[in-house]
Design brief:
Blueprint (H helix, E strand, L loop, with lengths): L31 E4 L5 E4 L2 E2 L5 H12 L5 E2 H9 L7 H16 L23 E3 L3 E4 L7 H17 L3 H12 L14 H27 L3 H14 L4 H13 L3 H19 L5 H11 L39 H11 L8 E7 L5 H12 L7 E5 L10 H11 L11 H12 L5 E7 L2 H4 L10 E6 L10 E5 L4 H12 L1 H5 L2 H10 L4 H13 L5 H11 L10 H11 L3 H10 L5 E2 L1 H8 L3 H13 L4 E5 L9 E4 L2 H9 L9 H7 L13
Parallel strand pairs: 7-10, 7-11, 8-9, 9-10
Antiparallel strand pairs: 1-2, 2-3, 4-6, 5-6, 12-14, 13-14
């Protein structure tokens, strides 16, 4: 008589969730085992009977992955034919199921001899049952190698949690030895099966890292070097693996090799993701450089295995949080309400726009940390413009995202469409947050959006976007006087600021309220503690400079990046007009540029679109082309002067006479 048991080991259901109870079947002298952790294998008794037909292999593999859960008919059809099923798809699928039942002598209905249900009665428990929505495959406790892996992983985690590092490491090592290669290595997986493949690979990586952490704590540094070298090479942007390899090398007396690992990791992060190494990795590098005692390895902590997916797998790519965030309270509240709105039935996309230096990146990072608790399955982050101001291809960004969830470099899909589909499939039933910094346009961000209704995306952009997926756009205006004073006080200290509040307010005004410009000015004062604040104010007025025209100053880089997004003719117009006028109408711009007023307005509007100019005023009741006036902020005019441009000295006197000063002459900054 077969014995029916309950198992606490989780399995995936059709949505990728957990079924806490698992049943199996067995008849006299007859058993089936299926191996998923490597090349696909089916064994009846001791004989390998793996199907050779590709689609039969797909069907059986998908049913085995979701053992004892309903695999819907539409999922099976999508797996086999994706979005191009034949008219006979349902009938063909029924034929495949019939062939599996016949070949493996799997029951389709009626009780198996001697079977006893979990309530003690003889309930019908077929091996491959047709349900109203699909099919269910029932297997035994030992039928799947993945089940044994899960049980060993759970036991090993329990041993680690109890402080038994030696026992836990040994048990986890035994679990990992069940893997014979990449999961379902010889099956061409469709979109549904691919999601399960990713899940299993994530679990494998999690258990491997737990075992490595335990071995590091046990002092097995030299023994780990070969394994960690291979793993770090396969995942060059996985900072955790790079750190473990550095630590193992350093503690083995190979200091130069540890530094070489850091250098290679930094190059990979910059080239593939446009990122700098995390603070943790940088601190480890500094410890190696200084020959200091290296940081202790991360304390091994057990993640409860009775969850839909291992919590340790959840990517956490956000930049460090802002220690003290100033202002923007209303915008933060509005953005948080959108990102966590329970009534929205689709993934939320929020776009933040603002002038260069308005603090878009800082705002988005702070917002992401503020809401990260609502997205427990992971937070992704990507800068979408590289160091050379070249937009980063979403194909590359998705490679980083998929790498963070367990895809090896040699397993990544070869096209953007395929990568986007795998990412959407992985996020379909998860709650993840994606932060995209410095996005160029809608086309760049569209493939990077997660699909699940519990997901959200925060975008920082230099221009407004128009896309049906965008739920809300948040504008970040410059700081008002009070916010600017708070920022200066935070950087310089209350004692220094309180002594000359008039100069502090003037400094905020001269920086046009732009947080990045205010911080640049504060940095000048911080380097010169003997200077009164009024001294810098007087110097800025005399030089008509916010001291932002250096590649080392973030304000200059930010303005220049926006400038490089302009069309060539608009770049020329910005270089010509912005250095000599703070406020200009299309009529005046047309005279300067030698174009008609409509063309001048078009050029000015493009500058507005990329936040390099703003609409200053509109003549009341006037809808003609010259009804608007456009204004350039002081730091922008300063950067414009520094850009390589055609000579404009011959027209400057005329312009100065025609243009009204944007601020009183007494302020020392005439038009």
């Amino acid at each position: 008589m077969s014995e029916f048991k309950e198992s606490i080991i989780p399995s995936l259901d059709e949505a990728g969730l957990v079924h806490p109870r698992r049943k199996y079947w067995k008849t006299g002298g007859f058993s089936v085992k299926i191996k998923l952790l490597g090349p696909f294998r089916v064994i009846r008794n001791t004989k390998v009977v793996t199907p050779t037909a590709p689609k039969l292999r797909q069907v059986l593999a998908l049913l085995a992955v979701h053992t004892n859960a309903v695999v819907r008919t539409d999922q099976l059809i999508e797996e086999l034919w994706e979005d191009r099923p034949p008219l006979s798809a349902a009938t063909t699928l029924q034929t495949y199921v019939y062939q599996l039942r016949k070949h493996y002598q799997l029951h389709s209905g009626g009780p198996l001899q001697g079977d006893v249900g979990d309530n003690g009665s003889s309930d019908p428990i077929p091996a491959l049952r047709t349900s109203p929505n699909g099919y269910v495959l029932s297997l035994g406790d030992d039928a799947l190698d993945a089940d044994r892996f899960n049980r060993l992983a759970e036991r090993g985690r329990g041993e680690l949690d109890a402080g038994d590092l030696e026992g836990g490491a040994s048990t986890l090592r035994e679990a990992l030895q069940l893997w014979r290669g990449p999961v379902l290595a010889d099956i061409t997986a469709g979109p549904v099966l691919q999601a399960a493949v990713v899940w299993y690979e994530e679990l494998r990586n999690t258990i491997a890292e737990l075992r490595i952490d335990a071995d590091l704590q046990l002092g097995r540094h030299r023994e780990l070097i070969t394994e960690l070298t291979r793993m770090a090479a396969e995942q060059p942007t996985h900072e955790g693996l790079q750190a473990k390899l550095m630590l193992a090398l350093y503690r083995s007396g190979r200091r130069s090799d540890a530094l070489r690992v850091y250098s290679n990791a930094r190059t990979s992060l910059a080239d593939q993701l446009g990122l700098e190494p995390s603070r943790e990795l940088q601190r480890l590098q500094q410890a190696v450089l200084a020959a200091e005692p290296s940081p202790e390895p991360t304390k091994v902590a057990r993640e409860v295995v009775q969850t839909a997916r291992p919590a340790a797998v959840s990517p956490s790519q956000l930049p460090p949080g802002v220690p003290k965030f100033i202002g923007r309270e209303k915008q933060l509240d509005d953005a948080q309400a959108v990102l966590t709105d329970p009534d929205l039935q689709a993934a939320r996309v929020l776009v933040t726009v603002g002038a260069p230096g308005a603090g878009k990146s800082t705002f988005c990072t702070h917002l992401a940390h503020r809401v990260r608790g609502a997205f427990p399955d992971g937070q992704f982050y990507a800068e979408l413009v590289g160091r050379d101001n070249t937009p980063i291809d979403p194909f590359t960004v998705l490679g980083g995202f998929l790498g963070a969830i367990g895809h090896r470099a040699d397993q990544l899909p070869a096209t953007l469409t395929e990568r986007a589909r795998v990412f959407r499939s992985w996020t379909a039933d998860r709650k993840v947050l994606v932060v995209l910094d410095d996005a160029v346009d809608e086309e760049q961000i569209r493939p990077l959006l997660p699909s699940g209704p519990g997901c959200a995306t925060v975008v920082a952009s230099r221009r407004r976007m128009s896309d049906s997926s965008i739920a809300r756009t948040i504008d970040l205006p410059p700081f008002d006087e009070a916010e600017g004073v708070r920022l200066l006080t935070d950087v310089l200290g209350r004692a220094r600021v309180a002594g000359d509040m008039a100069s502090v307010r003037d400094l905020v005004e001269l920086c046009d309220g732009l947080p990045l410009a205010i911080r640049a000015a504060a940095a000048q004062l911080d380097l010169r503690p003997h200077w009164p604040i009024g001294r810098l104010v007087a110097r800025m007025r005399q030089l008509q400079s916010c001291q932002t025209t250096s590649d080392d100053v973030p304000m200059f880089s930010s303005v220049r990046r926006s400038y490089q997004l302009l069309q060539g003719e608009t770049q020329s117009a910005f270089r010509t007009v912005a250095p000599v006028l703070r406020s200009v109408s299309p009529r005046h711009a047309a005279e300067i540029l030698g174009v008609d007023e409509w063309r001048a307005e078009t050029l000015l509007e493009e500058m507005v679109q990329f936040q390099l100019a703003e609409v200053d005023e509109q003549d009341a009741g006037d809808n003609t082309v010259s009804s608007f006036h456009y204004r350039f902020r002081r730091p922008f005019t300063e950067v414009a002067r520094s850009l390589d441009r055609a000579p404009t000295l011959d027209i400057t006197p005329t312009l100065a006479r025609r243009a009204e000063p944007a601020v009183p002459q007494a302020a020392g900054l005439s038009a």
